Amino acid sequence: MISVKMVNEAGPFYSGLNVELIVSSFLMRCYSPTSSSKHLEIATRFSDEEGIIIQFNNTGHQYAHRLPIFNCSFISTFPEEDERLIFGGSDLIRIEGIRLIQTCTNYQTFFKCLFIFDSILNGASVNADDLNICDVDYKILNKLISVSYSKMDEYLINTWNKFIIQKQTIIINLDKLSRLPSNISSLIMQSGIKKRYEALPPDSFNLFDSSLFSIFSNLKTIIIYTTWFDNLYSFNLYSFLSIINKSSTWTKIRILAKRGTWILALFDNKKEWRSILSAYDETKLNIKMETTKTVYDCVFISRVA
Predict the structure, then answer these.
(1) Using CA atoms, how far apart are residues 95 and 18, in angstroms rounded to an integer?
(2) How many CB atoms lie within 10 A of CB 104?
(3) In degrees rounded to 5, what are phi and psi of residue 293?
(4) What is the rounded CA–CA span in Å between residue 112 and residue 246?
(5) Residue of 272, 277, 268 lying closest to 301 (CA atoms)
(6) Do residues 83 and 76 touch, judged by C-beta distance below 8 A?
(7) Which of 39, 172, 177, 206 could cross-link 235 (Cys pair, CB 3.0–4.6 Å)?
(8) Do 297 and 263 meet the contact criterion of CB atoms below 8 Å apart?
């Protein structure tokens, strides 16, 4: 019997395909072993003139280093391919770039921006230093969001459109988002992010912008983490109501906070909670407080059937 140990080997890793694939996620899970090579020229062998090369990497987010990588070259019939099998499941891998064989175009700069945007919409911890986030990233994303991309080529536009069409669930972790440059977080936030501990803060901080609904027309589920360890980012549920009423596509929203913090305090204020119930009921929305099996209290919002 051969004992094999998975290692956390540094990327990048390359995988060639003989079709021009358009991806819709830039922070993904490999649910089955995914073949790749450490060498770009090897991946090129598996792509014809109309194919692509996908560049994976285990960088850019907090737990990237945990991704199991199996160097199987020592048992391969073709050891010169220097093959690596990527095992995902619960661990995420970054799509760092795609190369089109036909046009010899490398979209790594563009994919860096989309990885950042996809990560903040998946509640992931983006490593800003690792990615060297700069003003160029903001400008590219801002152009895409504002539909000012007429000078971009067709593959880029198709990639963006597939991404926004297929995105049905958004996870916002306010603490992780607060650690990014303010211009990046401003792409989805209304007035910025600030630590708030009171049950009903009077300002509009920590609220996402309603433009998310126009960007992601098929959005169904929104999950918001308002605490991370002892950091709290509460927000005004009346102001939140005015935002979510601007869309008819979503079906459920979960707002989570550390057990015993601002959500429970708001629920324990019976007069205020009844007022919130009434406000949401007037717009045909159900809102209730739940205690989950984890360490969170939860506000669950859904539409009246």
Answers:
(1) 18
(2) 7
(3) -80, -5
(4) 31
(5) 277
(6) yes
(7) 206
(8) yes
Mean pLDDT of 253-279: 95
> Burial of 276 by CB count in 10 Å (0-12 exposed, 13-18 middle, 19+ buried)?
buried
Amino acid at 61: H
The rounded distance, in Å, linking the Cα atoms of 52 and 294 is: 42
Tell me: the pLDDT tens digits for 12-38?
A: 999 999 988 899 989 887 777 888 899
Which tokens sit at 250? 């979503």
Q: How far is CA 87 from the centre of its chain?
A: 20
Residue with the bigger pLDDT between 106 and 130: it is: 106
What's the pLDDT score for residue 207? 96
Tell me the one-letter amino acid at 82: D
- Angle in degrees, CA 286, 215, 277, rounded to 5: 15
- Which two three-digit tokens encode residue 178? 């607060």
| Coil, strand or helix at 231 | strand
DSSP codes joined into one string, 175-192: HHHHTS-HHHHTTTBSS-
Q: How far out from the chain centre does Cα 282 lie?
A: 33
For 170, phi then psi, to 5°, come to -120, 135
Classify strands 221-225 and 285-291 as parallel, antiparallel or unpaired: unpaired
